[in-house]
């Protein structure tokens, strides 16, 4: 194998590069995400969300607010993680924390009865 098999690609001219950059700049628009309010570069000027996640989170919020539910923000009593939920019954960030809390309670009960 000799490097002669790989011909040097012709470097693009400065004009070519400048043209490409202006095309990109025209396409990229700075938009404000409707989900989180952060500014982001929208490549087609159509995206109003900076990510698929923000898009679905925003629509979930709309749906929940229509149902009269409001976002609740609290800290998990087990791991102190911040939780955002529409559920009125949720107490822990995860099943794991819920189980941990239950077993802690059970432990306390047991130590009291002993
Ligand atoms: Zn966003
Ligand atoms: Zn937790």
Describe this structure in words.
It is a single chain. The chain has 114 residues and is of the alpha+beta class. It folds into 2 domains: 11-68, no CATH class; 71-114, no CATH class. The chain contains 3 helices and 4 strands. It has helices at 14-27, 52-66, 95-113, and strands spanning 29-32, 39-42, 72-75, 82-85. The strands form 2 sheets. It has a two-stranded antiparallel ribbon with strand order 1-2. Strand 1 (29-32) and strand 2 form a beta hairpin. The chain is elongated, with a radius of gyration of 27 Å. The mean pLDDT is 84.
Class based on secondary structure composition and strand pairing: alpha+beta
Low-confidence runs of at least 5 consecutive residues: none
Estimated radius of gyration: 27 Å
Overall geometry: elongated
Helix content: 40-55%
Give every kind of bound small molecule, once each: zinc ion
Distance between the termini: 80 Å
Kindly give the count of domains.
Answer: 2
Number of strands: 4
Strand order of the largest sheet: 1-2
What's the average pLDDT?
84
Number of helices: 3
SSE topology string: HEEHEEH
Comma- or semicolon-separated keywords:
alpha+beta, 114 residues, single chain, 3 helices, 2 domains, 42% helix, binds zinc ion, two-stranded antiparallel ribbon, 14% strand
Short description:
The protein is α+β, with helices and mostly antiparallel strands and 114 residues long. Helix content is 42%, strand content 14%.
């Amino acid at each position: 194998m000799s490097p002669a098999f790989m011909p040097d690609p012709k470097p693009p001219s400065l004009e070519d590069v400048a043209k490409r950059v202006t095309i990109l700049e025209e396409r990229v628009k700075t938009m404000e995400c409707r989900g989180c309010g952060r500014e982001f570069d929208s490549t087609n000027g159509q995206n109003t969300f900076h990510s698929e996640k923000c898009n679905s989170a925003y629509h979930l919020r709309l749906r929940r607010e229509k149902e009269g539910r409001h976002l609740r923000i609290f800290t998990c009593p087990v791991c102190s993680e911040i939780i955002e939920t529409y559920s009125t019954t949720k107490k822990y960030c995860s099943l794991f924390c819920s189980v941990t809390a239950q077993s802690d309670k059970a432990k306390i009960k047991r130590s009291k009865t002993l």
